[in-house]
Design a protein that fits this description.
The protein is α+β, with helices and mostly antiparallel strands. The protein folds into 2 domains: 3-134 and 149-188, Orthogonal Bundle (Endonuclease III, domain 1); 229-370, Nucleoside Triphosphate Pyrophosphohydrolase (Alpha-Beta Complex), CATH 3.90.79.10. It is built from 15 helices and 8 strands. The protein has helices at 7-17, 29-39, 44-57, 61-66, 69-76, 82-98, 105-108, 116-127, 136-145, 155-168, 173-189, 209-213, 270-279, 324-329, 337-347, and strands spanning 229-240, 243-248, 259-260, 263-265, 283-296, 300-312, 320-322, 368-370. Strands 1, 2, 3, 4, 5, 6, 7 and 8 form an 8-stranded mixed β-sheet that branches. α1 packs across α11 (173-189) and α2 runs antiparallel to α8 (116-127). The longest helix is centred in the N-terminal third of the chain and has 17 residues, at 82-98. The protein is elongated and about 75 Å long. The two termini are 44 Å apart. The chain binds iron/sulfur cluster. Iron/sulfur cluster binds next to α9 and α12. Residues 141, 144-145, 190-191, 197-199, 202, 204-205, 208, 210-211, 216 line the site of iron/sulfur cluster (SF4).
Length: 378
Amino acid sequence: MKETEFAAPLLDWYRRAARDLPWRRTQDPYCIWVSEVMLQQTRVAAVVGYYARFLDAFPTVNALADASEEALLSRWQGLGYYSRARNLHRAAKEIVRRGGFPETADELRTLPGIGAYTAGAIASAAFGERAPAVDGNVLRVMSRLSDNHGDILAPSVRREIEAEVSARFPATAEAARIFNQALMELGATVCVPNGPPKCGECPVSGYCLGLARGTAETLPVRAAKKARRVEERTVLVLCRGGRTALRKRPARGLLAGLWEFPNVAGALTEAEVAAQLSAWGLSASDWLRKLSAKHIFTHIEWHMTGYVLSVDGADSQGFAWADAVALREYAMPSAFARFREAAAEIIRPLRHRTTPSPHSGGGENLSSENSILETSNS
Ligand code: SF4
């Protein structure tokens, strides 16, 4: 076969059967870029709502460049992987500084946070460039189509597959706009990751070496991942006068610049928590609740023990003390969602609470609750 012949049945199928997604109805590079960044690590169904709300708040690259980081992170809350949002922001400022959106994959790759995949996705869909965009779906489809038994996490295998996709690109710009999307759609809906591929429905089954040789179901090959590191943390939901203490995370590293409840390494006992509070200039007046949660990042798991407390004193840490309304506004990672709920329950009714807590300063009557949150985010 001529390699570009492969594209014809694939694109016919795509035009007929593809899911109607909002970012497929536009050729605006900014909108396509936002969707591609959101779709990294997040499911399509979850992205649809975020995409609409984000473009509502920041309809153009100029609007995004002008936005404050707080406003941006607030719109990103729940999507996780906040470095994506920060890179979007930095790249938007750079695009405005350069005076316009780059129109080639090579130029796009010079922007912060834009790698080969995103550059190819934008350049092809917005500008009709014959540039490959190889994501997990495309790696799977292509390794099956070409019966490639290399480890798809290896850069050399990715480069091989990028070259194969490039060789199969259709000739016209109009077809090139949808070719990457068609390969991804095939991977998402027909050449699926979980369970056997639906080869009977596949528009390119006649070109598939994996099907012909009976190896498709064993592909792709992926080297085993390293186990995640487990970190114990103690999270303190400190309530005082209808407000709860928050602090900002460092500007670099995991969850950089986001807000969090004060927390320390280790699974602390109540006596250890009391000592920690004392070091911060605070003392517990009411131990209200104990809970636990787990959060899974890419390389780390946080196993969190939480204490919800009423406290007295003036802290030495410069905590922000947020009331129930402000608490909703702070950009906070979903790792703390369980604790934010617990704080909201306490600081809202504090003035009206009718059942006094059973004791002050001790922990023997503390109610305990295990709420295991398992989300995949960072
Ligand atoms: S024939 Fe089967 S294995 Fe090959 S690309 Fe199509 S769905 Fe995937």
